Amino acid sequence: MANPFTRRALPHRLPPLLVAAAAFIAMGLLGLSCSDANGPHAEQASGRSGNHQRPVILISIDSLRADFSSVYGHKSIFAADVPTMPFLQELADGGVLFENASAASPWTLPSHMTLLTGMNAVEHGVRSRKFALAKNIELVSGRFKNAGYKTGGFFSAPFLHPAWGFGAGFDVYMPSADYLGSIAAGTALSAAGKSEEVEIIHHQSHTDAETGAQVVDRALGWLEHDKNYQEPFFLFLHFWDPHYDYFPPKEYAEMFHPGYHGDLIGDELMQLDRELSSAEMDHLKALYEAEIRYTDDQIRRLFARLEELGIADDVIVAIVSDHGDEFGEHGNRGHHLTLLQEVMHVPMVLHAPGLIAGGQRVTASVSIRDVAPTLIDLAGVPAWTDRSGESLRSLWETRDESREVSMDLLRPTRKMELLGYRKGMMKGILDRKAEPTALSFTILDLAADPGELHPSAHRITEDLPFAKAALEFLSAVMESRHQVQKVKEAAEITDLLSQVGYTED
Fold this sequence. Notes:
By secondary structure, the protein is of the alpha/beta class. Helices cover 31% and strands 18% of the residues. The chain has a domain at 56-404: 3-Layer(aba) Sandwich (Alkaline Phosphatase, subunit A).
């Protein structure tokens, strides 16, 4: 069924609760206006208050495919000379790019929980939106806070709400997009009942335009408030704009599809009852490219301000995505459907002047699970010893290639439970819901078949060395489960989320 909400139906006014909340976020909580964060003559950082710990920034760009990122060789469909991510290219040129990074899961909630915990999805247990992270599991924010860092987090998607366990260890953790209102207003996401606020929050999560600017403004506001930038800080930023629907600023849409005169508005990808021609799909891809470039430009704006503050060369930064989106590949649109490359291959770049030599590329298979442990390592903070994630430093320092990666997709309502395994260019997918007699282990050779058009299905036996290694690794993953908490979610909320593209248990 088509999405019943369209941008044209969006109310011109938000409910009073969200209007007040947005104003509260912009001025009250931070103690300053966002315009203060962009002042041209803000005081320079003259030191780190006697503390030599380096600041750390973790940036997640939602729904960003590696193969749509120009740093991975992408050429824009209608504007081949216009790169989608020129600033990410600059960071990669000064740092290290991971050519074969995998998401933890093909949707936002479990993948971000992996990013912030250094745990596989099965390990942390938040594989479904019915569950929240156990309170005794520390996020990377808590690790830095315990090491004396200021910690700030700014999120722009409903599934990063504290209801699922995000927010622990942050001095400030707040929505950075107006449509989410405040954390207080956002509790409606997991409360009983179907309210106007909830409908607008979730509808606008797909239609709210230009949230990237809000992310940067509020993050800079926090950094400059009480001169937090002069102290060691850990900053987590989540950018949402490349997630469908696609409503980039007009100038960006024109940049990537000049002269377009069709009638698509950008919300058609998930209108699954509507067939899209190849030309229409190409236009949606161009709008997606525009959203990516807009986000890249906002990250450039953030770093321009860090340069003005005198700390850009001190910052350790990681930029990564949680998953990609499908534009008809393998017959699918959106995400949360498969463990194939269009949703699982994500960009990953680390930049740390003086710690990482520039221009490096790592070809080993890696996971976003290891991003937080790597940042902890680079910052000299005590490492975790109670989880599977580990620093990636050896991959660029010693060219270690011996990494194994797990992937996860659990969808109880569709009776789906897929576990993915990758080592080098070989990939396997285990279907745990298949009948005992079914061909339930799929092998993909990404070197010979990068489009995954020729999968090889096998019965679960030990005859194949790769299959044996995969099953042993995934068995260990399944034994690493932690306890989780139940999240209270009413049936009305489940129905509403389904309408806007999140069908889950």
